[in-house]
Design a protein that fits this description.
Helix content of chain A: 25-40%
Strand content of chain A: 15-25%
Radius of gyration of chain B: 23 Å
CATH architecture of the largest domain in chain B: 3-Layer(bba) Sandwich
Shape of chain B: globular
Number of helices of chain A: 10
Structural class of chain A: alpha/beta
Oligomer: heterodimer
Bound molecules: flavin-adenine dinucleotide, iron/sulfur cluster, FE2/S2 (inorganic) cluster
Number of domains of chain A: 2
Largest interface: A-B, 72 and 79 residues
CATH superfamily of the largest domain in chain A: Alpha-helical ferredoxin
Strand content of chain B: 15-25%
CATH class of the largest domain in chain A: Mainly Alpha
Strand order of the largest sheet of chain A: 2-1-5-3-4
Radius of gyration of chain A: 22 Å
Largest sheet of chain B: 7 strands, mixed
Shape of chain A: elongated
CATH class of the largest domain in chain B: Alpha Beta
Number of helices of chain B: 16
Order of helices and strands of chain A: EEHEEEEEHHHHHEHHHHEE
CATH architecture of the largest domain in chain A: Orthogonal Bundle
Mean pLDDT of chain B: 96
Structural class of chain B: alpha/beta
CATH superfamily of the largest domain in chain B: FAD/NAD(P)-binding domain
CATH topology of the largest domain in chain B: FAD/NAD(P)-binding domain
Helix content of chain B: 25-40%
Distance between the termini of chain A: 45 Å
CATH topology of the largest domain in chain A: Fumarate Reductase Iron-sulfur Protein, Chain B, domain 2
Number of domains of chain B: 3
Chain lengths: 268, 605
């Protein structure tokens, strides 16, 4: 065969597994997902992986390549020229089979964050917003829910604190609402308590892996931490607010909107 | 029989793209208990890939032909009918054009954050066949904005989500649909849903072609489940070739290059450097005089849209796709068999702001810097205009209890869809289907499940794991793709189509004996075996319809019948339904435009 590449791919499930070695013909600008598809079509039709767009737009094909969380459809084989390519499933989430993991936790957490509630004066009216008012929020809304940031974050990966921390993806989501000029819900209590923004110690690993280049730490998490700190821990601000020198925007509490309990079902 | 999980809902929605999610919101708001099923994870449907924008006549921008009137539903109506070669259902188009603005503004209330104009309104960009700048957008990731907004809202109002579940059969009691049967991708175990009303929102089918912008999901399941349940299908010959798919590198072949590139001034050239869209032969009579006739005028249009006509690159998709095909056939193609699409004249900063995901797509995946060099493009299979025939107001199919909305439904787009009209289609008719299904559910009770219907489907589903020595579904899929690409693509002939039909019929025979290794747990090979059967039947009907329509209109271009035949074929839709084991196809007369709408068309001639 003219030009081939060697891939080691994890095959296994919750009981255990191992790396299998495959040889695949190389094509120009090939990505790792191309190689996985080639294996499925020609060698192992039962090799499990997720994908949809093949263009880095849907966030389905997340995996780890040589230990780094990446989208398989965006990882060029040439980046690893001469070296090994080892493809394993995301580590943080329970494995289902081969490269497929159970990411449903992310959807369950996300369902705790209520969508936008427009300010009363804009309810049912077109918004009047300048581009500069929305630039910041649009950065967060580029998120494709690949969950690579959740995968890399040590709070979830090493310490498994899924009970205490929503993770960087959901911080980005809350930031997109908290900084939306029209949102009328007070989201800070959720951030501080249930969301666990305090768990983040700003290692920036999440920002490094984000395929959408969202500045997760600098633009989302740090400003959110500051807002929570202002509200809960700054005695001067608290006093000034009390005597009315600083006027805080009055937003309605989170529990004023009904929580409709969407259920994310899983096969048993 | 093997045990299965059972769920019961007032309204069951099959598909979690924009149409399914919008239907879920309205069915829930009407007080129904709603279940939503999808083959992938939530938020990964085709809708997420849409780039250019959502068309709605909000009238935030000035016209493209100097007219003083702000944009309005009447112009959107005429543009859509013209784009569709007047095969569209006029009532569907009327509802669509009238309701799209309201649905887009509602998205903003749900949390969507569109790009803005200097006046603080939603920004709109030009697209092929639209007389106004009408595509409300967020850079070139509008679909992501739309699906995430609807997903978060639907989760907020409360629904039951079943991800990575594939339905393969609708279950009936008498005439009416009462549920659906399928399997969990993860475990391979079986699941049955009972529902008072069902909304089919499974999107389109492009995977039977070799080069397509569609993901693995586009295999026609919903269309074929509806067909098997007795629903009528409409206009299946009308499959859209998007003029600009990627051609290089090989792994990216078919991936979409948004029409937004041309909307932002992108220029098409052949290998001789000619801007071939100015060739007068390529502009159909219906559009003569409405587009710039010199490159100078087209260049002035970039900054002065009031006093100049739009460039011919913005003709409707079918027109541009045919022109590219002809250039390549005539030997004026690019290195890898496409043509060049160039936006470099807009400058790096502008391109990165307006087309960030295109910039990234070419940069990261094709090693091409679109701010410095042209892209190579060729038509790719993109969208299916035809689908389940539904009533305009209620999105009801011909089967009681079964509704359909979004790309799986037919009637709105006629022979060719205008860019941006699909994202507004899914929100307008997603809502209507959800409302109508909820109303239907309130009038009825749950039906009974007849297990014999499940047993039959189960045997088919399991056969590839049981049978030994059969073929791989991937091999059959590949042969089907080659055949469809060769003989049912842009330029069709009786001879080619007959060849395709024979090939499909013999592939159907081969597909009776499939084998696949491994077990039922997340086994893509096993899933492919069911998908390929759906695709073979869908392809058969596409080809049969294409054979019957002996004219050229919209996406259907017959080299042996190159003329538009308004006297005969312009008056008929092709309707298909299941008659025993055969697909029955009938030319059904179109409902003529009422005078008030005919007057609009005359006015805008
Ligand atoms: C790359 C690309 C770019 C596009 N750009 C634009 C654009 O700029 N403007 C525009 O207007 N349109 C655009 N379109 C078209 C538009 O995106 C689609 O037509 C539209 O999103 C279809 O929405 P839908 O809700 O009908 O279906 P989809 O979004 O396709 O969703 C279908 C759903 O059905 C589910 N499903 C399918 N089969 C089954 C089954 N058997 N069992 C269970 N679930 C099933 C799928 O899992 C999925 O959730 C684009 C399309 C593509 C592919
Ligand atoms: S910066 Fe915070 S959220 Fe991001 S990886 Fe580090 S700890 Fe996790
Ligand atoms: S923030 Fe970035 S890394 Fe995290 S889920 Fe979104 S796109 Fe992926
Ligand atoms: S397949 Fe969509 S991001 Fe990789």
């Amino acid at each position: 065969m003219a030009d081939t590449i060697i891939l080691k791919v994890y095959r296994g499930d919750a009981e255990g597994g191992e790396l299998h070695t495959y040889e695949v013909p190389k094509s120009p600008h090939m990505v790792v997902l191309d190689a996985i598809h080639h294996i499925q079509r020609n060698q192992e039709p039962s090799l499990a992986c997720r994908w949809n767009c093949k263009a880095a737009k849907c966030g389905s094909c997340s995996a780890e390549i040589n230990g780094m969380p990446r989208l398989m459809c965006k990882a060029q084989v040439d980046d690893y020229a001469g070296g090994e390519i080892i493809v394993t499933p995301m580590h943080t989430f329970p494995i289902i089979k081969d490269l497929v993991t159970d990411v449903s936790w992310n959807y369950r957490v996300s369902s705790k964050i209520p969508p936008l509630v427009p300010k009363p004066e804009y309810a049912d009216k077109p918004f009047n917003l300048q581009q500069i008012d929305v630039d910041r929020v649009q950065e967060f809304r580029k998120c494709i829910e690949c969950f690579l940031c959740q995968d890399v974050c040590h709070v979830l990966r090493e310490h498994q604190r899924t009970d205490g921390f929503f993770g960087p993806r959901q911080m980005v989501k809350i930031a997109s609402l908290e900084m939306h000029p029209m949102d009328n819900l007070n989201r800070r209590e959720q951030l501080k308590n249930e969301g666990g923004v305090g768990f983040c110690n700003i290692t920036k690993c999440c920002t490094e892996v984000c395929p959408e280049h969202i500045h997760i730490t600098d633009n989302a998490i740090i400003p959110l931490k500051e807002r929570v700190a202002d509200d809960y821990f700054d005695p001067v601000q608290g006093l000034l607010r009390k005597i009315g020198i600083i006027k805080r925007e009055r937003k309605q509490p989170l529990d004023s909107v009904p929580n409709e309990q969407t259920k994310i079902h899983r096969p048993v | 029989m093997e045990p299965y999980d059972l769920f019961e809902y007032d309204v069951l929605i099959i598909g979690a793209g924009g149409a399914g999610l919008r239907a879920a919101i309205s069915a829930r708001e009407a007080g129904c208990n709603v279940g939503v099923i999808c083959k992938s994870l939530l938020g990964k449907a085709h809708t997420v890939m849409a780039e250019g924008g959502v068309a709605a006549a909000l009238g935030n921008m000035t016209s493209l032909d100097g007219s003083k009137e702000p944009d309005n539903w009447q112009v959107h109506f005429v543009d859509t009918m013209k784009g569709g070669g007047f095969l569209n259902n006029w009532r569907t188009v009327e509802i669509f054009a009238k309701e799209a603005p309201e649905r887009v503004l509602e998205l903003e209330q749900y949390g969507a954050v569109f790009d803005r104009t200097p006046e603080g309104k939603i920004a709109q960009r030009p697209f092929g066949g639209h007389k106004y700048r009408r595509l409300n957008h967020v850079g070139d990731r509008t679909g992501l904005e739309l699906i995430r907004t609807l997903q978060d809202k639907a989760v907020g109002v409360g629904m039951n989500v079943h991800m990575e579940v594939v339905l393969t059969k609708l279950l009936k009691e008498g005439d009416r649909v009462v549920g659906g049967f399928g399997y969990y991708r993860e475990t391979g175990k079986l699941v049955v849903f009972r529902a008072k009303a069902i909304v089919m929102a499974t999107g389109g089918w492009g995977r039977m072609f070799k080069y397509t912008s569609n993901s693995w999901e586009g295999t026609g399941d919903g269309l074929m489940m509806g067909y098997a349940a007795g629903a009528e299908l409409l206009d299946l010959e009308m499959v859209q070739f998007h003029p600009t798919g990627m051609v290089w590198p090989p792994g990216m072949r078919g991936i979409l290059v948004t029409e937004g590139v041309r909307g932002e001034g992108g220029i098409l050239r052949n290998s001789k450097g000619e801007r071939f869209m100015f060739n007068p032969d390529y502009t159909p009579a219906l559009y003569k005089g409405q587009f710039a006739e010199t490159p100078e005028e087209a260049a002035r249009w970039l900054d002065d849209k009031k006093n100049n006509r739009r460039p011919p690159e913005l003709l409707p998709r079918d027109v541009v796709a045919r022109a590219i095909y002809r250039e390549v056939e005539a030997g004026r193609g690019s290195e890898h068999g496409g043509v060049y699409l160039d936006v470099t004249h807009r400058g790096a900063a502008y391109i990165k702001r307006k087309l960030p995901s295109m910039y990234e797509q070419f940069h990261a995946l094709g090693n091409v810097d679109i701010t410095k060099e042209p892209m190579e493009v060729y038509p790719t299979i993109h969208y299916t205009m035809g689908g389940i025939r539904v009533t305009p107001e209620e999105c009801a199919s011909t089967v009681p209890g079964l509704f359909a909305a979004g790309e799986v439904a037919g009637g709105l787009h006629g022979a060719n869809r205008l860019g941006g009209n699909s994202l507004s289609d899914i929100i307008v008719f997603g809502k209507r289907a959800g409302d109508a299904a909820a109303a239907f559910a309130k009038q009825t009770t749950l039906g009974n499940i007849d297990e014999s219907q499940i047993t039959e489907e189960l045997a088919l589903l399991m056969s590839p794991l049981v049978d030994k020595g059969g073929e791989s579904p991937y091999a059959i899929h590949q042969d089907l793709q080659e055949e469809m690409q060769k003989n049912c693509m842009i330029a069709r002939t009786e001879e080619g189509l007959n060849h395709a039909l024979e090939a499909i019929l013999s592939l159907q025979q081969r597909a009776k004996h499939l084998s696949i290794g491994g077990d039922r747990r997340f086994n893509p090979g096993w899933h492919a075996a069911r998908d390929v059967r759906f695709m073979l039947r869908t392809s058969e009907i596409i080809v049969r319809c294409a054979l019957q329509r002996k004219e050229s209109r919209g996406a259907q271009w017959r080299l042996d019948y190159p003329k538009l035949d308004n006297e005969h074929w312009g008056k008929f839709n092709l309707v298909a339904w299941k008659n025993g084991e055969q697909a029955q196809i009938e030319a059904r007369p179109l409902d003529p435009l009422p005078d008030r709408l005919q007057a609009l068309v005359e006015e805008q001639k």
